[in-house]
Design a protein that fits this description.
Length: about 300
């Protein structure tokens, strides 16, 4: 049996994949002024941010107090330049998609990058509370340094905390890209729109999902596999989900949620409540209560 030359098979595939009807809505045509944010650039943003917020643990490992200001200064300067470039790409991409002028993107990107740089001290302060909560909440942790170096929650939260600030500044694309990078790295999926308080910790972490409209208080602890999700989606007259509706849980201060618990809908888990593992919760839980296998028990923790 005579074989068909491979080159003709390849050409047929290429022709089909190059047919405009096959990539409608799937192809972003690059122009000089409009490109999507770069994965390489965003990875560098993560590297620089972690090295600034956790000096000596990420980035240069040979720092001392005398050389620290120099290295942080260099890192902050580089971070600003890359942030401005990637924010510009994100702004221009969205405005181009919406048929708007991209002329002001460069100036706005620099202003937004400056605002983000100004928030770095605040980010370090809140991440320090996350590190402390994780260390104090895990008997297996031998030191704070081990938590910073090894625990996936710190990597996930460093991306999330950065992404959340960018999200609040109204920057498109980049916040979600940063949290999805952390999702790929750690298995922890936190939407950048979620609001999370201080002293937050996730033990182990794999499979945790935190939805876009979640509100989480201070001193909250989750275990692996926890889902803070939506119960259902309201739809518009065309049958598409309505965007921007608060649809995820509110978790008040001092709540503990054990592994593989699923909390759905705009419900409130009251202060100090404990949610046991492997259960679904779709109604409010009073403060201080403990739920195991869907039943409210007396006695708090």
């Amino acid at each position: 049996m005579k074989e068909t030359p491979l080159i003709w098979n390849l050409q047929d595939v290429v022709d089909k994949l190059s047919d405009p009807t096959s990539y409608q809505g799937l192809f972003h045509q690059h122009t000089e002024d409009v490109s999507i944010p770069s994965g390489v650039g965003l990875n560098r943003i993560v590297e620089l941010t972690r090295s600034i917020l956790f000096p000596g643990y990420f980035g240069h490992s040979t720092l001392c107090s005398q050389t620290l200001p120099y290295h942080i200064g260099m890192a902050v300067e580089e971070l600003y330049e890359i942030l401005a470039q990637e924010i510009q790409s994100g702004l221009c991409f969205v405005e181009h998609e919406q048929g708007k002028s991209t002329g002001s993107c460069r100036k706005r990107a620099k202003e937004l990058a400056t605002q983000m740089i100004d928030r770095l001290p605040m980010l370090r302060k809140i991440l320090a509370t996350d590190v402390q909560a994780t260390y104090e909440g895990d008997p297996a942790a031998i030191s704070v340094g081990e938590v910073i170096c090894c625990y996936p929650v710190i990597r996930a939260l460093s991306n999330y905390r950065l992404a959340h600030e960018l999200y609040k500044l109204g920057i498109p694309l980049i916040p979600r890209m940063l949290t999805e990078m952390a999702h790929s790295e750690t298995g922890i999926d936190i939407h950048p729109g979620a609001q999370i308080g201080e002293y937050f910790s996730i033990d182990h972490g794999t499979g945790v999902v935190i939805g876009a409209t979640c509100i989480i208080g201070n001193h909250v602890k989750l275990y692996q596999g926890v889902t803070l999700g939506a119960k259902r989606f309201l739809k518009d007259e065309t049958g598409l989900p309505i965007k921007g509706i608060a649809r995820h849980p509110i978790i008040e201060d001092d709540v503990v949620i054990y592994s593989n618990a699923t909390i759905l809908g705009r419900i409130t888990i009251g202060k100090g409540a404990v949610i046991g593992g492997n259960i679904w919760v779709t109604t409010d839980v009073p403060a201080g209560e403990k739920i195991v296998q869907g039943q409210i028990l007396e006695g708090g923790r």
